[in-house]
Amino acid sequence: MASSYSWTRKQNEQFENALAKYYKDTPDRWHNIARAVTGKSADEVRRHYEALEKDINKIENDQVPIPNYNDHRFLKNLKLQ
């Protein structure tokens, strides 16, 4: 089974789609979401959700600094694809 710290783009898409389908009041929500996400357990998807909630709360409470895109050090390290 994949590590809970390692999420592919496909797994994140599956996770987002499952969150839209299984609301908070859905019985066995995390088990249903885990069935929709390849290689993840109910506990892994629940922890992923909780980590995202923490990140969103930090952003909404201005606890994440806004990057200074005019900073030349930032631009020098930026790799354009």
UniProtKB/TrEMBL annotation:
PROSITE patterns: MYB_LIKE. It is found in: Nucleus. Residues 6-53 form the Myb-like domain. The keyword Nucleus applies. Its main location: nucleus. One of its GO terms (biological process) is determination of dorsal/ventral asymmetry. The keyword Heme does not apply. Keywords: Developmental protein, Nucleus, Transcription, Transcription regulation. GO terms for cellular component: nucleus. Transmembrane segments: none annotated. InterPro entries: Homeodomain-like_sf, RADIALIS-like, SANT/Myb. GO terms for molecular function: DNA-binding transcription factor activity. This is Myb-like domain-containing protein. It comes from Salvia splendens.
